[in-house]
Design brief:
single chain; alpha/beta; six-stranded parallel beta sheet; 18% strand
Length: 375
């Protein structure tokens, strides 16, 4: 009998968690694993999961409450679930409580440990709750070594609980999409000789998109054909759009919104930029490097796991527009250096960040939870 895994997600919109689970569902051995996804019907991945032929349960999360706990308990019992795998804070709460209640082993993946925006009391409450939930968890999956080190330093989990399963990407799929359905510059109103920075992101305070805006403002006098392409959306989008208007950057910043397939955007870019204050291991950065782009990113955990300074890109201090502007200027002025970094970056991610290793590592976690040997 296959190991039945319940994947609990906070959203089916664009993001690292849904993308990771989608790749797991596509690549896990079907005869050995049977996956059920429970998540809100709020994004394109809901239908994508259905197209793969897996069972998808609509679990709306308008306000977190006991209803989610009881619904998850019923699902576990009705479907004979062997392993519960949670992604995100909400599912990590009710999913692990439901697993404990039903006696089913729980796996939790941290897609970044984000709590610094909370009040001091909120931070303490979050850390205390997470430590207690981790006691109910069979295995904690960390998506990077830097994230694991942070979690251990915060005493969120025991070393014996943790495994590092690095986010991986299906590079064959990336290459196919870029080769067959790339977005063209002219469709975005861009000329061939424009210099285009880009970022695929969720508009969230932790992403510090405003740093990129200030950097463009600083660079425009020296690089008049500069443009910034922002792919994504989120709660901060209205504020970011207001900042663009207030700083007179309407003609220089292009918002695409969420793209059904963001892989199509990378051929438009000359340089990929990420200004986050914190990351787990950002798949968009893996994608950009896989597409052969040099990258400039903030020197924070997650980015450090990916970028080899001066080899595959540049790391700069967080919230430093002047340093970011100088790093971008130096690379835009040197196309050959950008090309070398892009080649080295693609070589690195192909070797170390493929989807196969991610799927194999996660499958081994499921087997240990189900006490099964590989088929």
């Amino acid at each position: 009998m296959p190991i039945r895994v319940l994947e609990l997600l906070v959203t089916t919109g664009i993001g690292g968690g849904p993308t990771q689970v989608y790749d797991l569902v596509r690549h896990l051995p079907r005869g050995e694993f049977e996956v059920v996804v429970a998540a809100p019907r709020d994004g394109i991945f809901f239908e994508r999961f259905q197209e793969l032929g897996v069972r998808v349960e609509d679990l709306p999360i308008r306000r977190l409450g006991l209803r989610h706990l009881f619904s998850t308990i019923r699902l576990i019992r009705a479907l004979g679930i062997h392993v519960v795998h949670t992604h995100g804070k909400g599912p990590g709460l009710y999913g692990r409580l439901a697993a404990w209640w039903t006696g089913v082993p729980a796996v939790h993946t941290f897609h970044g440990i984000h709590y610094s925006s909370y009040s001091r009391l909120g931070q303490q409450l979050y850390l205390t709750l997470e430590r207690r939930l981790c006691r109910l968890t069979h295995t904690i999956i960390n998506v990077s070594s830097a994230q694991e080190a942070e979690g251990l330093s915060l005493r969120l989990f025991e070393p014996s609980q943790s495994v590092v399963v690095i986010n991986g990407l299906d590079f064959k799929e990336l290459d196919r999409i870029i080769a067959t359905v790339p977005i063209r510059r002219e469709s975005l109103g861009l000329a061939a000789d424009d210099l285009v920075l880009g970022c695929v992101t969720r508009f969230d305070p932790i992403k510090r998109v405003e740093t990129s805006l200030e950097t463009v403002r600083l660079l425009l006098p020296r690089i008049p054909r500069l443009h910034l392409l922002l792919v994504g959306g989120g709660g901060e989008e209205a504020r970011i759009r207001r900042l663009v208007a207030e700083t007179g950057l309407n003609e220089r910043v292009i918002f695409t919104g969420f793209l059904e397939n963001s892989l199509r955007i990378y051929p438009v870019l000359d340089l990929y930029v990420s200004t986050s204050l914190k990351e787990g291991l950002p798949l968009s950065l893996v994608e950009a490097m896989g597409a052969g782009l040099a990258v400039v990113a903030t020197d924070v955990p997650g980015h450090r796991d990916l970028v080899v300074p001066d080899e595959t890109g540049l790391l700069i201090p967080p919230e430093g527009p002047a340093a970011l502007a100088e790093a971008i200027r130096s690379l835009l002025a040197d196309p050959e250096r950008r090309r070398r970094m892009g080649v080295a970056g693609r070589r690195r991610v192909l070797k170390e960040f493929g989807v196969e290793a991610m799927v194999d590592g996660t499958a081994e976690v499921y087997r240990r939870c189900g006490k099964r040997s590989p088929c």
